[in-house]
Specification:
This protein is mainly α. Helices cover 65% and strands 0% of the residues.
Length: 86
């Protein structure tokens, strides 16, 4: 949670793309002091998905700024083990 807050804060300082994730993080931090997180998780799962998308975008931007090669995309089903295979 601290890492995601930091990523959102830095991105909000750099441009408008980070404002929504920062607002979501501030709301989640505020709600952790008084609410049960089990209930919050079921209510805020779309926000968690959005935070994950934002983290992926900032990671890709960081790679592009550093001119590092991007990780190769995985093939669908890669890494899955079929049932019945030992």
């Amino acid at each position: 949670m601290v890492h995601q807050f930091w990523v959102s804060l830095v991105d909000a300082v750099r441009g408008p793309r980070g404002r929504l994730p920062l607002g979501i993080m501030l709301l989640l931090i505020q709600l952790t002091f008084g609410e049960n997180l089990d209930i919050e998780t079921s209510m805020f799962w779309p926000a968690f998905v959005l935070l994950g998308v934002h983290a992926r975008e900032t990671y890709r931007d960081t790679l592009a700024r550093r001119d590092l090669p991007r990780p190769a995309p995985r093939a669908p089903g890669a890494g899955r083990v079929s049932p019945g295979v030992a």
